[in-house]
Each structure stands twice: as structure tokens, then as C-alpha cells.
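Question: does this match?
>
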Amino acid sequence: MILVTGATGHIGGELVDALAARGEQVRALVRAAGDRRPAFPPGVQPVTGDLNSPSSMRAVLAGVRGLFLLPGYQNMAGTLDEARQAGVQRVVLISSSSVAGGDPGNAITRYMMESEAAVRESGLAWTFLRPFGFMSNTLQWAPQLQAGDVVRAPWPDVPIAMIDPHDIAAVAAVALTSADRVGRHYTLSGPEPLRPADRVRILGEVLGRDLTFEAQPDDEARAELSTSMPADYVDAFFRFYSAGTLDESRVQPDVSDVTGKPPRSFRQWAQANASAF
């Protein structure tokens, strides 16, 4: 039995599908009984629990042997202790590429580093996935594109080899079902570095629309981000992309090495998600 946390998210939903297609027994963790996608694959067990409350995970973890875990929750050590007592043998953790040589003074890097440390110290077998920026972050542009043909976004000169969550899930599925991936970390990227304007151009071609990109000034971007996340996380992103402390432009081989398939392109992601725009 494999427990997938974040089962209604972009990565978790893809992972549930991938594991079910392999014939694995899957439990899909949701926060509340009604918090789920329209339908999980046949045989998948939706279960409720709160990763911030380790005791709420006790029944959910019973009989589980593999755990796909999201980072940054309160008392991760407590949740991992519940997992160990339940007989969980293997944890695959989503982390960040910023961890490698990262700065613990950066709030995002710090909670990723702390999450990895908690898993290492749990005594469970582990695999860490350190993806670059997600292609699905482009969905943040949907309101702008539903209102018109102009996309305003920050950091116009920052190229990122963004990755489709489908490919992160594909690597996670292998790591959860293959003993030879234990004790390793994988840096996951897409097939090419793209600037925001590149993504706008490709998205426009897929949608059949003449789209325009406009660079968002830093002060405007900071104000907008501050409405949806804590100030230290806003600062973390500006350190990554304005100060240039994080380089996610170099294409990595790990998706192909683990799955035997090349990572999906942004064009493929856009085609699969065109209806969202």
C-alpha cells in the first residue's frame, strides 16, 4: 500500500494515476471528505488526515509501506514517527533544487532543508526529489488570459527549465516501487530553459491567440505576491530571481535516467491544459 499526500494537487494527482496504472494499491490523502478530484481511478482509497496533526495520520498510515510526502508541515518528525510505527518502509519527499548548496537564511530553502533533515533522521529509507519550477505555475496567468491577451509577469530575464508535474510524478512512481532508488536525490528539470516571454509565445501558438508579454516591475510584483504569501517567502523568491541566488536554467538528465523517457516540453503541457486558459 502506498499513501500519496497532496493527492488533489498537480503532482499528487498525477502520481495517484501513475501508481494505479501500475496496479499498485493506493491511498489518496485529502484534507476533508469532499476535497478530492471528480474521480480517482478505480480501487484508489480516498482517506482524510492532516499532516500538521501527526495523531490524525495514525489510521491513515496503517498498513502503508510507501509514503509520498510533501515538505514543510508542522512536526514532520512526529508524522514520520507515526509512519515508522505503522511499518512504513520508504519515503519519497518533494523538496527543492535550492537545497543543494542552499542558504538556510532563505525561508523557502530553509523549510526544504529542514524537511529533508527530518526524513533523514527518521530512520526510514528515503528518496528526495528536487524539481525546478513547475510548468503548472503558468496557470497563475489564467485570469489575465481570460480577461485579455496580455500577460504581465515578473523576472523577464530569468530562464527556467520548468518541469511538468507529470514528470515529477513519473519519477516518484519509480522511486516508490524500486529499491535501487533509496538514499538518492534527483534534480528534476524540463527539456529546455524558457523565459516568461517564451512561455507566452508558445502558449499563444497553442491557443491560436496573439498574446503579448509585459514585464512586471519588482515593486508591483512584490506587492502582488504579498497578498498570497508571507513576507519571508516573498523575500525568498526575490533572492532567488532578482538577486540571482538560484539558477534553474541548466537542463538535468535525471527524469530521463530514472523513467527512460524524456521530460515533456512546455508545448506539450500547454496542449494538455489549454482549456484552463
About this structure: The two ends are 36 Å apart (CA to CA). The chain has a mean pLDDT of 95. Residues 107-121 form the longest helix (15 residues). Strands lie at 2-4, 26-30, 45-48, 66-69, 90-94, 125-131, 150-153, 184-188, 212-215.
